[in-house]
Design goal:
This protein is of the alpha+beta class and 347 residues long. The chain has 2 domains: 211 residues; 116 residues, 3-layer Sandwich (Rieske Iron-sulfur Protein). Helices cover 48% and strands 14% of the residues. The protein has 9 helices and 12 strands. Strands 3, 4, 5, 9 and 12 form a 5-stranded antiparallel sheet that branches. The two termini are 31 Å apart. The structure holds protoporphyrin IX containing FE (HEM).
Length: 347
């Protein structure tokens, strides 16, 4: 890791990032509420509080879509890699917006009776046996519990406590939350007789999320399948297909996941893909000032040794690389972590 790296920091870039999120939220809510209020004098007009409930719910849902598509987009094209930065702040902001949506729902729909709003949420619609008439709010509540758990455990403290693999599994629950929210919104539309255009919008959003995930998984699978064995050496990709100072991830036939980087314009190296700090995906990082930088916490590695620059001691396994017919080949046998190796030169 870099000598100036601090585990938890609120740097200027993060403040600017958060400012953009706040401005984005204000703009979205402002536009949603203003357009909805245009119909306010119509007979079928809904109350401004319900408009705000919908604005907050749809805003949180949109933010979740952005969070979900950043990963596959970054795997499909390195142009999107900067979006990986600070994704956690975006996730926590989404949770805050969802909390505001739920708070208003509890006050507006369940807050005026004699029983507690939370209890009322569970008993006011007893149609538990029907899918279409099932209390759709409960799908939202189940999704919210997952989102809240993820937001509360997003800090590095929990990542360290749980260990990276457990933390990663926990955060994969976001896909379950997404499924529950799609059902929440769908059954909500059915029960509140929402407009057909909203239904089309929902279908389009789901198709975008699913197809981006499938496309990126298919591309990776195809790329790994193309790698033909030559004894211990495996063909990867044309050397020039990796942008200078960027990386690409590969899964070798023996199951090892590696990150291949191009730097100094014509040098190619390969190291283990999992950062020695908390298993961050190095292939999504970049080469900055001559070192590979992990996208998660900025840990740095010297490309040809896989070692963090002194005084740090983290080490990665390195792999022998060569270029034949302009194609990168890697030797599947990993060198012990921190073993110096030569960069292959693109001629
Ligand atoms: C305890 C949890 C939740 C409850 C009780 C709840 C309740 C509701 C209610 C009552 C509506 C219908 C509002 C109306 O049209 O009158 C609604 C709609 C909606 N909710 Fe939730 N919700 C919850 C969680 C969430 C979460 C976590 C999200 C997103 C991250 C979300 C996103 C939405 C969306 C997108 C709509 C449709 C908005 C529209 O019609 O434009 N909800 N929710």
């Amino acid at each position: 890791m870099s000598a100036d790296y601090q585990a938890v920091q609120w740097n200027k870039l993060k403040k600017v990032y958060d400012l953009f999120i706040i401005i984005g939220l204000i703009v979205y809510l402002g536009i949603f509420v203003s357009i909805s209020l245009l119909n306010y004098d119509q007979p079928q007009a809904i109350s401004p509080v319900i408009i705000l409930i919908r604005a907050l719910g749809s805003c949180a849902f949109l933010m979740l879509h952005i969070i979900l598509i950043i990963g596959p987009l970054a795997r499909l094209s390195s142009i999107f890699k900067p979006l990986l930065y600070n994704r956690r702040h975006f996730g926590v902001s989404m949770c805050i917006v969802a909390t505001a949506h739920i708070g208003l729902v509890l006050i507006w729909y369940y807050g005026y009776g004699v029983i507690s709003p939370l209890y009322a949420l569970f008993i006011s619609n007893p149609n538990y046996e029907s899918f279409a008439r099932f209390p759709f709010e409960l799908y939202g509540a189940a999704a919210y519990l997952i989102i809240l758990l993820m937001a509360l455990t997003s800090h590095d403290f929990w990542l360290k406590l749980f260990s990276a693999p457990v933390w990663k599994i926990l955060h994969m629950l976001v896909y379950l939350a997404y499924g529950l929210l799609v059902i929440h919104v769908l059954t909500g539309f059915i029960q509140t007789e929402g407009s057909l255009s909203n239904l089309y919008l929902l279908a389009t959003a789901v198709i975008i999320v699913v197809s981006l995930h499938l496309t990126s998984a298919f591309r990776e699978w195809q790329r790994d399948k193309r790698n033909t064995d030559d004894g211990e050496w495996v063909k990867l990709c044309p050397a020039r297909s990796i942008t200078n100072e960027h990386g690409k991830g590969f899964t070798l036939k023996n199951g090892d996941k590696i990150a291949v980087f191009r730097y100094d314009n014509n040098k190619i190296v390969a190291v283990a893909n999992a950062c020695a700090h908390q298993n961050g995906p190095l292939c999504e990082g970049r080469v900055v000032n001559g070192n590979i930088v992990c996208p998660w916490h900025g840990y740095e590695y010297i490309p040809t040794t896989g070692r963090s620059p002194s005084p740090f001691t983290e080490k990665l396994a390195t792999y022998k690389v060569r270029i034949k017919n302009r194609t990168i080949q890697v030797n599947q046998k990993p060198n012990p972590p921190g073993t110096p190796t030569k960069a292959a030169i693109i001629r």
